[in-house]
Amino acid sequence: MSETNPWAAQWFNAQQQFVDAWSDMAKSGTPGNGSQSDLWAQSFDLWRNANGAQVQPDFQQAMDKCMDMGKGYFAMAEQVSKNMSAGAEPAEAINQWMDQLKQSLQQFGSTPGFDGSAINGFMKQWFNPTSSWQQMTAGMAPMNQGAWQMPGMNMPGMTPSFNLGEMIDPLGTMLEAPGVGYFREPQAKQQKGLQLGLEYHQANQAFNQAFLRVATESIQGFQARILKVDAESAPKSLRELYDLWIDISEEHYAEFAMSEEYQELYGDMVNRLMIMKKHYSEIADDTLKAMNLPNTREIDTMQERLQQVRRDNFVLKKEISEIKSLLKQVMAKPAAADASVTTAAAPTVAPAVKAAPAVKAAPAVKAAQTVKKAARKSASKTTASSNTTGKPAVTAATATAKKAAIKTAAPKAAPKKKPVVTKASKGA
Amino acid sequence: MSNFQFRADQVVDEMVQFNQNLSKGVKNLLEADEISSGVTPREEIYTEDKLTLYRYQPSTGVVQNRIPTLIVYALVNRPYMMDIQENRSTIRGLLDSGQDVYLIDWGYPDRADKYLTLDDYINGYIDRCVDIMRERHGVDKVNILGICQGGVFSLCYSTLHPDKVKNLVTMVTPVDCKTPDNMLSHWVQKMDIDSIVDAMGNLPGEMLNWTFLNLKPFQLMGQKYVSMVDIIAEEKNVKNFMRMEKWIFDSPDQAGEAFRQFIKDIFQQNKLVEGGLKIGEHPVDLADLKVPILNIFAEQDHLVPPAASKAMGKLVGSKDYTELSFPGGHIGIYVSGKAQATVTPAISEWLNKRC
Lengths: 428, 355
Description:
heterodimer, A: mainly alpha, 2 domains, 0% strand, extended, disordered C terminus, B: alpha/beta, Rossmann fold, 8-stranded mixed beta sheet, two-stranded antiparallel sheet, 15 helices, 12 strands, globular
């Protein structure tokens, strides 16, 4: 590896040094200063930034997630082992670690604009839903990222992590001011957009804060569970401890996710985002219209009409196909009647057998198959009707099949039948 | 509290091992080749818009069921899950047990497909694929195997076109979406679907992904990646892990109008159970569904709880209705070794008895 990928070799060496240092620290019982897991993460980030392009794109995301979760796992190991090295019993060490996590959450929770994305380390997992929501919707929600830089909004000292709660009231008042004059309508639309943006952010904050509360509750739940655990089911390794934490967190999360509260919060957040998104799309449409460029409203209209034309087209094609089929039957009927009379006079199946080569000899095999099927259909219909005419069913069917086969196997008929499948296969 | 036995040096040893595995895993990832999606040879039979109908190369030396089987997969994920790797392929299992397998690949809808409705999918695309199969094989009816959302489509199709369906197999198919354990359905009840479709046009695949992953975020976004370190330390596991990883994040956008109707009618209004479902102008009443049905569900399915699938039994009019319970999850039912050994042979046996 070192020959083919020197950067990787550097990272592997750094990892080895880190593990050795950590191992010495733990064995000597010295708690040590600073976070070793931070060093571990930093060394990887350094390596990744320099070397990221060498990993296949399909693998990059998985590797990033693996390293992110690895950081959390390392943080957990480090904290527990530090507490134990400082003299705490394992259970006490875990409890101390949990208390530290709670404190950390309280700190982050009081940060203006908290969405969980700033949380690193072990508790990051609890905020994957909220932080991934922020990432996913960043491109969808115009107010999420850039709108606060609009003229008049970019106040001195204002950072992206503004305290939304403090801004709602003054902004709300400002946004209620009626527009006047020639630009009254565009102004009103912009005001409404900002209002919708604020409403979405409020809904988003309520969702994030609920996560914060449930995450804190889950820590307490974990501590309570640890107290009750018996010798048999007690974790015997760090991994087992981690898995237990996952199970308990998932239980708490599921209870929250199945609650009325979650349904309301999530629904409200999604709905407000969509209302805002639609509003800004309409503003963009107005701008495009003013520039004599096609907008989404016009494209939607065209697409809807086109889709209806395609549906009608398929219906028409099907009807034409059925009409052709009926036409063949109608054309075959007089001949079938003749054949039936002949057959009645001289009951033999020989003519039908003789007719078969004519079908096989048709130039297009596909056409021949199609024709055969038409013949079969025709035959079965005749069979059904034969009960009412009182004619021998098998005889009539055979004769009809023979006539239909002969008729439709004619060279001119074959190309006409073929496109029924071929056209459809091209999805006209 | 005193029940905990592990020591500080033990924790360090575990982390040393973890780190060694991580180093090996990163090395394996760096050296791994590109991954493919789908492994069994197949032939393109028909294309229309983004749709492709494939026929898989039949296995040699096997007595073939004369009735071909059409797999109708969900729109929300890609169908190569059915054929993910050599030794974990439901399709390979079906071929080896004598089925003639066709599959609809819905492709990746884009903005041009926004106005596709459930009627377009069910009475349009599926019906045309079925007609082509009937034509090719000279049969009146085909077997249909519907997967998840594709199972709902298949139920509707079989109800509306009984003259073209010989047997119906449904796998992890939601029917009753108001069971108390259905998290996915619980989440969408207060969502304004009209607002979503009107704002977004098509529903982005990323939003679906977010939803699916957040049904079990600790397992699917946390624990899995810690476990990944142990898995990818073995070179032979890297590709298999990454194939699955690729599939999980490979969610096509959803055609807006079809999504609107599916969520409103199936999830919010539970019309398969409550009644009133219409596909286009055609009412769908499962009591009219009389074809033989094999309904397969997964006992640990977090996306489609067993109760959601089992509700089918009381609603359909079929007198030949069989349930098969699989002790696993929504994905394991296709890719686990246990599923390969039990579920796929059971499907074939059931179909072969009814050909």
